[in-house]
Fold this protein.
Amino acid sequence: MQGIFYALHIFLNRSSMINRTAIFLIALLTSCSYSLKDFYLNAEEKSFFTSFKAGDTIYYENLNHDFDTLLIIGIDSNEKREHGVFMAKPASHSVFVSSTLLPVNPYATRVQEQNRVDTLFDRLLGIYKLPVEKKVEYVFSFKEFFETRETLDSLYLDTLRINGQAFSEYYIIESSVPDKRENPHEIDRLIWSKNAGLLAYRNRKGEYWTKVASKSYSALNLVE
């Protein structure tokens, strides 16, 4: 009889362990699930990309009439919908604007014949979503300027006047790199509009370049 009770005790302990393990695994798997609304960009996040089209050429000018020319390569996205546990990479979704500076850019390779552009590119703007963590990252990259934000500062609704132009409804993206004045031409501030993209930028000397024109070249053949 004692043997029967002992065997029953062992069985109950093992069953309890199996149940605890099952509950743990279910909880772990559930914690790694996510809602599609946290995976895809919402309407407000999508609006950051409406002003960009592949082939657009955007010009920026300072008070000395120096120009920067920005070519929009296109808008791309990456998706990783699978999620798991342990060493698996988390699910993620990103949308980004590919661009390059013309005609001279240390990241560009060459301009080929027949108006074909063969170039590496920068990601001018990227929005990255990690749905399991319910996390969003905004990434801004222009020349040597690179900043990541989980949230953007408040939208400015006043009128900002730079180089004779007026801007409203804008964000100010400041560089988090300490100003050591080692490179006075380094970009330290972007003026950004949700519906119009990069409006202006400033270097550490205090010089501003402002957006002056944008032209679409639909015949431009971009090499991927």
